[in-house]
Design a protein that fits this description.
The chain is an alpha+beta fold and 243 residues long. It folds into 3 domains: 101 residues, Beta Barrel (Ribosomal Protein L25, Chain P), CATH 2.40.240; 81 residues, Ribosomal protein L25, C-terminal domain (RNA Polymerase Alpha Subunit, Chain A, domain 2), CATH 2.170.120.20; 36 residues, no CATH class. The protein has 5 helices and 13 strands. Strands 1-3-2-6-5-4 form a 6-stranded mixed barrel.
């Protein structure tokens, strides 16, 4: 994959108040973590936003070019650190980036990363038969050397018909990239269109008729429970008339 460089500066001033001052100056405070290292840096906000806009930055190898200003203003030394983005913190109101954590990696050791799965094309089952494309897996867990890490995995779905699917075992991964999830797991599929069942007029009429037939029976049961027989109920009006 292409080498992506990001110029950063070693940050010697730490603390909440210092971090707020950096953000006001359009600079993002960050930290680099590793097996034996842990040090703060600062990033130009505009450069980082440009990087995020042009790449799926969470799963790309970034080569941090760290400038450490020496005691002499004329001298400085640069150290390169290959890293992955570990975490990005956002302002809950503005949505802007306020802090970044990086993980330093070794270019000679395999890493485990989540890679986005992108559906490409329009399935036949959707275009011709009105089916729906179901995207079940959005990220694939892979293991590989940093140099083999794909930025994304595109999956051609144009030949999928109704009830067809693509599983992890069907994906065409680059040499050296190994999927870690169940190979039988369905990634994408085309499902039939959903149909709403509407009751036919004849069926609806039958339901109403049956309800009307059952109504007198309900009244009859109610009167019998109260200790009054249907015959006694019929006789009561006649006795009132005689009085």
């Amino acid at each position: 994959m292409a080498e992506i460089n990001l110029e950063v500066t070693l940050r010697k001033q730490i603390g909440k108040s210092k971090a707020k001052a950096l953000r006001r100056a359009n600079i993002i405070p960050a930290v680099v973590y590793g097996e034996k290292i842990n040090f703060p840096i600062s990033i130009d906000k505009t450069k980082f936003q440009r990087l995020m806009g042009s790449h799926a930055a969470e799963n790309i190898i970034i080569n941090l070019k760290i400038t450490d200003e020496a005691s002499s203003a004329k001298k400085s030394k640069e150290k390169d650190h290959p890293v992955l983005i570990k975490d990005i913190q956002y302002d809950p109101l503005k949505g802007s980036v306020i802090h970044v954590d990086f993980n330093e990696i070794s270019l000679t050791k395999e890493i485990t990363v989540k890679v986005p799965l992108i559906a490409k094309g329009e399935p036949i089952g959707v275009k011709q038969d009105g089916g729906v494309l179901s995207h079940q897996v959005w990220e694939l867990d892979v293991k590989c050397l940093p140099k083999d890490l794909p930025e994304k995995i595109e999956v051609d779905v144009s030949n999928l018909k109704i009830n067809d699917d693509i599983r992890i075992k069907d994906l065409k991964l680059a040499a050296g990239v190994v999927a870690l999830q169940d190979l039988e797991m369905v990634v994408l599929s085309v499902v039939p269109p959903t149909k709403e069942e509407v009751a036919k007029p004849a069926e609806a009429e039958a339901v109403v008729t049956e309800s009307v037939k059952q109504e007198p029976e309900v009244i009859k049961e109610k009167k019998e429970k109260e200790g009054e027989t249907p015959e006694a109920a019929k006789e009561k009006p006649k006795e009132k008339a005689k009085e």
